[in-house]
Amino acid sequence: MIHFNEEKGAGALAQNQKNAERLPAALKSVKAGKDTVTAIFDYASFEDLKAFGETNDNEDTSNSLTALEAKPLSEAIADGWFSEGELVKADGSEAGTDTVQNEKSGMAVRSEGGATLMVGGKVLYRSSNTELKDDSTVSLPGTGTAYVIFKR
Fold it and tell me: Quick one: CA dihedral 13, 16, 20, 24, positive or negative?
């Protein structure tokens, strides 16, 4: 990660520093469990996430994202994001189209390719082809388009 950041013209660092420019790729947190270690990374842009994923420094093969976009829910609805695909409530129960259309606040994420996505709030709705891991984390499928709607 340090090498990647240096190649991008940033400092030889692995974590973002207060009052400093955001690194292209940074380690946000690490948590060790009984049989697992969970690392959360912060990227300055989607392009940085993709570029870091293509380096030899990255050993995480679970991220196969090819597209990622986020916008206010009202804009996503106006742009017709949810005309295709089935949205369910966070718990997996059916969500009517009207229910989502009436939810004017919040953020929407559209993705293509697989990854574990952590959003900055509570997941309200998601595509039926995704899996909810916790209130703010969704496992995205390896192929196809997926949507996540969350409230900050």
Answer: positive
Tokens (6 digits) for 25: 């790729």
CA 151 to CA 76: how far, in whole Å? 14
In terms of Cβ atoms closer than 10 Å to its own Cβ (0-12, 13-18, 19+), residue 58 is: middle
The pLDDT-based confidence of 36 (bands split at 50, 70, 90) is confident
Least confident span in 46-55, 61-70, 96-105: 96-105
SS3 call for 145 = strand
Q: Are 140 and 117 in contact (CB under 8 A)?
A: yes
Q: C-alpha distances in angstroms, 68 versus 11, 33, 112, 148?
A: 26, 29, 7, 11
Res. 105 pLDDT band, cuts 50 70 90: confident
